[in-house]
Design goal:
The structure holds two protein chains of two kinds. Chain A is mostly beta strands. Chain A contains no helices and eleven strands. In chain A, strands 2, 4, 5, 6, 9, 10 and 11 form a seven-stranded mixed sheet that branches. A four-stranded antiparallel sheet of chain A has the order 1-3-8-7, with no helix packed on it. The model of chain A has no long low-confidence stretch (mean pLDDT 91). Classes of the chains: A mainly beta, B mainly beta. At the A-B interface, strand 5 and strand 6 of A face strand 6, strand 10 and strand 11 of B.
Chain lengths: 113, 115
Amino acid sequence: NAGVTQTPKFQVLKTGQSMTLQCAQDMNHNSMYWYRQDPGMGLRLIYYSASEGTTDKGEVPNGYNVSRLNKREFSLRLESAAPSQTSVYFCATEQGSGANVLTFGAGSRLTVL
Amino acid sequence: AQSVTQPDIHITVSEGASLELRCNYSYGATPYLFWYVQSPGQGLQLLLKYFSGDTLVQGIKGFEAEFKRSQSSFNLRKPSVHWSDAAEYFCAVEGFSGGYNKLIFGAGTRLAVHP
């Protein structure tokens, strides 16, 4: 089983460019999350989706949008990238909502110049 | 507000030595606590979790952690470290904030293992 698949693994953008990070899961989990990981700060929640058709803001949503296309897919979009968005982004899934045993993708490293 | 503190940013141990990684949390109720491990270039993998019951929990890869309510701690231990344990370790607590349950992560402890 693939589990949680993120694409792309690496991306370099110029300030102001837009891009979408894709996440797909094959575990039939209801909840999906986007985190960003920065040195010395652990993981911070950007957006989450408790179920298909619903999305909510996390701790650091500014500059991002998300779309829960269906149960399998949850995408993260940067409309106008900024250097402060240079980070490693992780998608995660959870079977229910609140059990908080997350399954993570391998991450997407984004650099904004 | 809920928070998680991992006091040690970086730890180095010799292979075969014992290991303890510290984690302190701030949470009003009985917490759900987790340890995750991240190998280089990989996502996070769950090592173990505490929800209730026995305060000493066993995880994968020979790790264990002990929940101590009086000290607000959930330290991770391993009696004999292997070179493959070199990774970054994250403690997390489930918290309710902003209208939803979420995992609050510590900043992580990077473990290096000397041969």
